[in-house]
C-alpha cells in the first residue's frame, strides 16, 4: 500500500503564495505536463494555525481536493521549520540562542530550537491535527518531516538541561566525565553538574572531547525532535510513508540517525550551473546522490530539484544551460532516485526567495525551461514501468562518517585537509573510471563489496576495526588513508604508534609525520612514474607490508608513501599521504581488473555511467553532464529506450545528452 518506489515526476507548490483562482489552472497544467506528485505546506504554519489552537485547514482542503480531482498525489510537509510569530512571541523559548548569547530572531526561517519544550509541544500539536485531518484524504501519500534539518549550535536553557541529561546518561557521574574528556587540562574539571553547559563563547579551542559530544548531543536532539513527529504520523497515518528532505552535503547532521526513522530518504539537489564549475559539479553531485542512497542503503527521492537560476542567498547563478534541467534529473534517477520533485512550480513573487527560480518565471508564461521539464516528464512517464523497482548494485564502497568529519573539523589537521573533500576526490576517481560506488556509513556491514575505501579513520573503536579486518580477511581489498587510528571515539589521542588499531591489518608503523598542508611534494611509484601529494606525509616503516610508492623529496625522500599488505585472503592498502587523483585512478583501474569489477570503460570527461537493474532487466544510463558534445565507444549493441533505436559502435552524446540503454 505504501509506495514510494515509483519512477515519477513532481513539483513543489505553495498554494498559500498564490491567488486561489490560480490554483486550478496551475494544477491542470501540472496534470497536462505529466506531473504526478506535489509537495505542499512545509512552511505554512501561520496559515494552518492562524492563532494558538485556531487551525484553518479549509484552504489546504480545497487545494488537496483539486490535486485529487486531477489525480495528483500529495506529500505534506510538517511546518515546524517556520514557527509563526504568535508562537515565538508567546513562547520565545522556541528561538535558538547563538554562542554569543544573541537570539536567532524570527524573520527568515529555521528559527527553532529542537529541544524547546514549546516547539515540541506546539510542533506535535500541529502535526497531530494535520495527520488526523489528512490521514484519509485520497490525494495524500506521505509526509515530509520539517525541512532540511541542520545544526544550530543552540545555547538556550533547554539545550543546557538536555545536554546535561545526555552527558549523565552517557557517563553516569562527573568523575567519569572528567576522566573521559580529560578536563584536567587547563583546570577544566567539573565538580557540580550545574557547571556543565553547552560550549559557551564560541571558541573552537575548547576541549575537543567535550565539543565532539556536544555535536553528538545535537545530532541526537534532531533525531529526538523528528521522532516526536514520526510517532504521531506512524500512529495516525500508518498507510503513509515518511521522508525528510536532506540539505546539500557536507552538512552537520547525523543523517543516518535521521534516516533510520524514515521510510525513504529525500535530497534537495541544486547542482551549480556555472560553466566554471563544470569540471567538478557533476562529480560532487554524483557523490551527493550516492551519499543519499547510502542513508538507508536503498533508493530515494529528490524533494527539490534544480529548475532555474538559483539566487537570493547569493548573487544569482547562471540560468541552467539547455538540457541541464533534464540531464541532472536523469542523473538522480541513474543514481537511485525514484521520484524527482522540482523546486518550484513558479518563482515566488514575494518573500526573500524571489530569485531562486522555479520552472515558470514571474511572468507566468511557461518558457524554455518549462518545455524541457515537459519533455522530461514525458520521458520519465514513458519509462516508469521499465525502471520502477530497479536498483543499483555496486561492488565498491566508500565509507563515510559524520563523526570522523566532526572530529576532523574540531581540530583541523593541516591546511587543505578536508574530510569530505578527500572523499570527493576518491569518489570522482571511481566515477570517472566508470565504476559504480556506494557511499555508506562506516559502521555498516560490508558484505557483497569487493573493494572498500575508508579514508581518514581518525576516530576508531574495536567494532569498526573488526568490521574492516573481517572484510579484508574474507578476501576484500581495503584502502585506508593517513590520519587513521589517531584517537578513541572520545576524541582522546591513543598512546601507540599509528595507525593505532589498524596497525595489524595495514602492517605498517608511522614513525613520524609531517603536516605539509598546501605544499606539494613528490611521490614515485614502482614504475618510476612521478605524482604529487599534499596535506600530510606519514613517515612509514613497513612491518610486514610492501611499499608501492615512495616519497621523492624532503628529508624522507626514498621512504615508503603507500603500502600494501596481504591480510587473510585480502589486501590492505595504506596511503601515508594525500595522493593526487591520478594516482587513485591508476591504482583503482588496476584493482578493477584484478577484482573483475563491472566497469564502463572509456568514459570521456564529464560523462557518467551507471546501471539500474531489476526483474525487468538492466539499464545503462549514459549522461553527458557537459557543454561539449562527446563520443562514447559502446562495447556492445544496446536498445536505446529514449530514442527507440539500436545503438552500437560510436555513440554521439550532445551537450547534456542522455541515453538509457537496455543491456
Ligand atoms: C532549499 C529549501 C527550499 C528553498 C530552496 C532554494 O534549501 O528547502 O525551501 O529555500 O532551498 O533556496
Ligand atoms: Zn536550544
UniProtKB/TrEMBL annotation:
The scientific name of the source species is Paenibacillus etheri
Q: Could you list this entry's UniProt keywords, alphabetically sorted.
A: Glycosidase, Hydrolase, Metal-binding, Zinc
Q: Which GO terms describe its cellular component?
A: beta-galactosidase complex
State where substrate binds: 109, 147, 313
User: Which protein is depicted?
Assistant: Beta-galactosidase
SUPFAM superfamilies referenced in this protein's UniProt entry, alphabetically: (Trans)glycosidases (SSF51445), Class I glutamine amidotransferase-like (SSF52317)
Q: Name one GO biological process term.
A: galactose metabolic process
Q: Where does the record place the Glycoside hydrolase family 42 N-terminal domain? A: 12-382
Query: What sequence ranges are listed for the domain Beta-galactosidase C-terminal?
Result: 606-663
Catalytic site: 148, 304
UniProt binding sites for Zn(2+): 113, 154, 156, 159
Q: Member of which family?
A: Belongs to the glycosyl hydrolase 42 family.
Catalysed reaction per UniProt? Hydrolysis of terminal non-reducing beta-D-galactose residues in beta-D-galactosides
The EC number(s) given in the record are 3.2.1.23
Question: Where would I find the Beta-galactosidase trimerisation domain in this sequence?
Answer: 395-597
What terms describe the molecular function in GO for this protein? beta-galactosidase activity; metal ion binding
Q: Which InterPro entries match?
A: Beta_galactosidase_C, Beta_galactosidase_Trimer, Class_I_gatase-like, GH, Glyco_hydro_42, Glyco_hydro_42_N, Glyco_hydro_b
Amino acid at each position: 500500500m505504501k509506495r514510494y518506489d515509483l519512477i515519477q515526476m513532481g513539483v513543489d507548490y505553495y498554494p498559500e503564495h498564490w491567488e486561489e483562482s490560480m490554483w486550478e489552472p496551475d494544477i491542470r497544467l501540472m496534470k497536462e505536463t505529466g506531473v504526478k506528485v506535489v509537495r505542499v505546506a512545509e512552511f505554512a504554519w501561520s496559515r494552518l494555525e492562524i492563532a494558538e489552537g485556531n487551525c484553518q485547514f479549509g484552504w489546504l482542503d480545497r487545494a488537496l481536493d483539486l490535486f485529487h480531482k486531477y489525480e495528483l498525489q500529495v506529500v505534506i510537509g510538517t511546518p515546524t521549520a517556520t514557527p509563526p510569530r504568535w508562537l515565538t512571541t508567546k513562547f520565545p523559548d522556541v528561538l535558538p540562542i547563538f554562542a554569543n548569547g544573541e537570539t536567532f530572531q524570527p524573520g527568515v526561517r529555521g528559527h527553532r530550537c529542537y529541544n524547546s519544550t514549546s516547539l515540541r509541544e506546539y510542533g506535535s500539536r500541529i502535526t497531530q491535527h494535520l495527520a488526523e485531518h489528512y490521514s484519509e484524504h485520497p490525494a495524500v501519500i506521505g509526509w515530509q518531516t520539517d525541512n532540511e534539518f541542520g545544526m544550530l549550535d543552540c545555547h538556550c536553557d533547554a539545550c543546557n538541561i538536555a545536554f546535561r541529561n545526555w552527558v549523565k546518561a552517557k557517563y553516569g557521574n562527573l568523575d567519569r566525565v572528567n576522566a573521559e574528556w580529560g578536563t584536567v587540562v587547563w583546570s577544566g574539571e567539573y565538580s557540580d553538574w550545574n557547571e556543565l553547559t553547552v560550549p559557551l563563547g564560541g571558541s573552537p579551542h575548547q576541549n575537543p572531547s567535550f565539543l565532539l559530544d556536544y555535536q553528538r548531543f545535537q545530532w541526537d536532539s534532531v533525531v529526538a525532535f523528528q521522532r516526536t513527529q514520526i510517532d504521531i504520523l506512524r500512529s495516525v497515518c500508518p498507510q503513509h510513508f515518511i521522508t525528510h528532505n536532506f540539505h546539500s552535503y557536507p552538512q552537520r547532521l547525523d543523517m543516518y540517525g535521521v534516516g533510520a526513522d524514515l521510510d525513504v530518504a529525500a535530497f534537495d539537489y541544486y547542482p551549480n550551473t556555472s560553466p566554471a564549475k563544470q569540471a567538478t559539479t557533476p562529480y560532487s553531485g554524483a557523490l551527493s546522490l550516492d551519499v543519499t542512497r547510502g542513508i538507508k542503503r536503498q533508493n530515494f527521492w529528490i524533494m527539490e530539484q534544480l529548475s532555474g537560476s538559483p539566487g537570493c542567498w547569493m548573487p544569482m547563478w547562471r540560468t541552467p544551460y539547455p538540457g541541464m534541467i533534464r540531464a541532472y534529473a536523469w542523473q538522480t534517477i541513474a543514481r537511485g532516485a525514484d521520484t524527482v520533485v522540482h523546486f518550484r512550480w513558479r518563482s515566488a513573487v514575494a518573500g526573500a526567495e524571489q530569485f531562486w527560480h522555479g520552472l515558470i518565471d514571474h511572468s507566468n508564461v511557461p518558457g524554455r525551461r518549462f518545455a524541457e521539464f515537459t519533455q522530461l516528464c514525458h520521458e520519465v512517464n514513458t519509462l516508469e514501468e521499465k525502471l520502477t523497482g530497479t536498483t543499483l548494485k555496486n561492488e565498491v564502497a566508500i565509507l563515510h562518517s559524520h563523526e570522523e568529519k566532526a572530529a576532523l573539523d574540531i581540530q583541523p589537521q593541516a591546511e587543505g585537509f578536508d574530510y569530505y573533500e578527500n572523499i570527493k576526490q576518491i569518489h570522482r576517481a571511481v566515477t570517472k573510471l566508470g565504476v559504480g560506488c556506494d557511499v555508506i556509513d562506516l559502521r555498516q556491514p560490508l558484505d557483497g563489496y569487493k573493494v572498500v575505501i575508508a579514508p581518514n579513520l581518525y576516530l576508531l573503536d574495536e567494532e569498526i576495526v573488526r568490521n574492516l579486518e573481517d572484510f579484508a580477511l574474507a578476501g576484500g581489498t581495503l584502502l585506508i588513508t593517513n590520519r587513521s587510528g589517531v584517537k578513541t571515539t572520545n576524541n582522546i589521542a591513543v598512546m601507540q604508534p599509528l595507525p593505532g588499531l589498524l596497525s595489524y591489518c595495514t602492517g605498517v608503523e608511522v614513525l613520524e609525520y609531517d603536516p605539509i598542508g598546501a605544499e606539494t611534494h613528490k611521490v614515485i611509484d614502482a614504475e618510476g612514474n612521478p605524482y604529487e601529494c599534499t596535506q600530510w606525509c606519514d613517515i612509514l616503516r613497513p612491518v610486514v607490508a610492501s611499499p608501492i610508492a615512495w616519497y621523492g623529496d624532503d628529508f624522507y625522500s626514498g621512504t615508503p608513501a603507500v603500502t600494501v599488505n596481504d591480510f587473510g585472503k585480502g589486501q590492505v592498502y595504506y596511503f601515508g599521504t594525500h595522493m593526487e587523483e591520478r594516482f587513485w585512478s591508476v591504482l583503482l583501474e588496476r584493482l578493477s581488473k584484478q577484482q573483475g569489477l563491472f566497469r564502463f570503460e572509456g568514459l570521456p570527461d564529464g560523462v557518467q555511467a551507471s546501471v539500474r537493474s531489476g526483474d525487468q532487466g538492466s539499464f545503462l544510463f549514459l549522461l553527458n553532464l557537459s557543454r561539449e558534445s562527446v563520443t562514447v565507444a559502446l562495447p556492445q549493441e544496446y536498445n536505446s529506450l529514449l530514442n527507440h533505436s539500436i545503438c552500437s559502435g560510436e555513440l554521439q552524446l550532445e551537450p547534456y545528452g542522455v541515453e538509457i540503454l537496455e543491456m
